[in-house]
Every structure is written in structure tokens, then in C-alpha cells.
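Q: How would the C-alpha cells look for this protein?
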Amino acid sequence: MISTWQHYGNSGSVLKMKKLLGIVVLGLLLSGNAYAKKNITKPDFQNRIIENGITGFVLRYHGEKSPSKFEITLPKNSPPIISDYHSRYGVLGGSRSNPIKHGGIDFYIKAGSPIIAAADGKVYGVKVKDTCIGNQFAIYFGKSPNGKRLYATHMHVGKIYVKKGDIVKRGQLVADAGAEVKTNCGGGMEHLHFHMSNKRGTEPNAWGSWRFLGGPTGWINPHEYWTGGKGKPECFVEEKEYPEGLLTLPVACNEL
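A: Here is the predicted structure in C-alpha cell form.
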């Protein structure tokens, strides 16, 4: 039989353990915040773009390696990627929090630049003036050679030239790049967020990537589906033939 003294003694130990656990958790949280990276300034960002040659590169912050575990090689005249698939850092280098890893690819393109269809497909969703992400549209590109369904949403765009139900051809102008979206979703710099899934979103009241793609269980790495091969995106070139079920870049490249 447990004595009254033993009972209160055990309760006291439990309380002490809870306090100790709370201190440990708080310490870990503070430590994580201490190591979180902050956004760089826009002038610093522009300097990095210039230093890297303006086009044809993936901007990596804080020594981050390719999260895809394989090299990404952009054409030398392609707009740069400034936050890659599964990167832990945003377009200005700040640490991501929720989710920690980026679900799409962010291309740095100036407002008004052309956004083009990455393959033949069908527009299945358009949303204008979302309160957090701005304008958005989504295209179904059919199935990849390995049978994956390819759904893609394009976020933070400007004027949209297509509507739901439209059939589009690879290379077709579908939207203009948008100006900076001045919310937390915009990341502090104008860019195209290109995000893919093998599933279609079914919740009309969802927002962001979830609206047209659903949750992370279906999200896929665009670098697996380029016409040039794994990690090798290609610029769209008129009259060139491309394999079905694979994508060219959703942004127009500069003339060589």
C-alpha cells in the first residue's frame, strides 16, 4: 500500500519532471530561432543575381546543396531559380517555417514577362486576387511516360490569358508574370511559383497550392519531368519536337 508521503512525493517528482521537460523544449525552440536565417535585402538580392550572371543558374543560399539529390542544370538563357524544390530557404534566403521544405520551384522573372504552357494541356482552374497569393491558374498536362498524372499550378502571376476549360499548346502565352505580392505568401520578391502534383485538388475553399493540387501527399518534383531529362530543363523552341508527357520551362528564355 502506498503511503500518503509516498503519494505526494511521487506527484512532486512528476511536477519537477514536467518543468524540466518544459525548459528543455523552450531551449530547443529558442535555439532553433537563433539559427533561423533572415531575409537579405532587395539590393543584396540583385547583387547576387548579377554576380551569378543574371540567367541560367539556381541560387543557393547558405551553402545548401540540391535538395533533389541530383544536379539541376538550367539553360544559360533561362530565368534563374531563386528557391528550388524542397529548399529550406525562401526567395530572399530566409528560413522557411511552415512547411519547412518548399513544395514548388520559384523562378525570378520581372513583372510582365511571359509565362508559357510547359506542355500541351487543359486549364482546370483559375483564381484571381487570392488574398494571400495573388492570381493563380492550373493546367493538367496529361500523363508522364511512367504514368504519373501531371497537374501544375502557377502562382503570383499577373494578367491571365486563359480560362477554365481552355486547351493550351506547349509554348503558348498563358499569363504575364506578376508584380511582388505584398503578403507573407509573396516572399518579398516578384517570382513565379511553379508547383506540381499527381493529384488534383478537390476542396474549393482551400487556398494556395492546396486549391488546385490538394495536400503534400501528391506533390511531385518538377525536376523529374523535364524534356531534357532528370534535372535538365529546356527552353521552349518553336517548331522543335518534344516528347509527350514531359515539360519544357514554364517561363520564356532570353534570345541567345
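The first helix runs from residue 4 to 35.

The first strand starts at residue 81 and ends at 83.

Upvote if useful.
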